[in-house]
Every structure is written in C-alpha cells, then in structure tokens.
Amino acid sequence: MNKITLYGKSNCKLCDEVKDLVVVLAMDYQIEMTEVNIEDDEELLHSYFLEIPVLFVNEERMDYREIDVFSLRERLH
After folding, report:
1. What is the pLDDT of residues 39-49, one digit of tens each?
2. CA 54 to CA 23: how far, in whole Å?
3. What domains does the chain contain, in order, with CATH numbers?
4. Per the confidence metrics, is the pTM higher than 0.90?
C-alpha cells in the first residue's frame, strides 16, 4: 500500500490538480491518501505557505515543482 500525504489549503487549484492526479493513479496502484490543510496549523502554514502543494509519497517529500505523473509513478509500488 502506498501512503500519500497531501499538504495544501482550501481554494488551491494546484492542490486540486494533484488530488485529481492521485485519483487517476489510484486506478493502477493501491494508494491511501491523507489530506492536511495547512491553514489548520500555524506551524505548517508558516512552513509550507508558499510551497503548496507538498506531497509525501511513502515518506519521500515532493514539492510542487517536481509533482507530475511520471515522478509520482517512479515513487509508487
């Protein structure tokens, strides 16, 4: 089982695009996804405000600059 944690916030189009990408990949891979709204935690908001969406795929961090279907597939099993 692949574990993905998406750090994002509400009204974030890039976050929505990443969620949609994970849904598509879930057709081929077993994925358990957790979403974390950084607006609910002051420390996360401070850390990730300008860098969302941030994904942790099987504990490996990916920031918005490197998230695409090909790089995600490389990290899934």
Report:
1. 999 999 999 99
2. 16
3. 2-75 (3.40.30.10)
4. yes
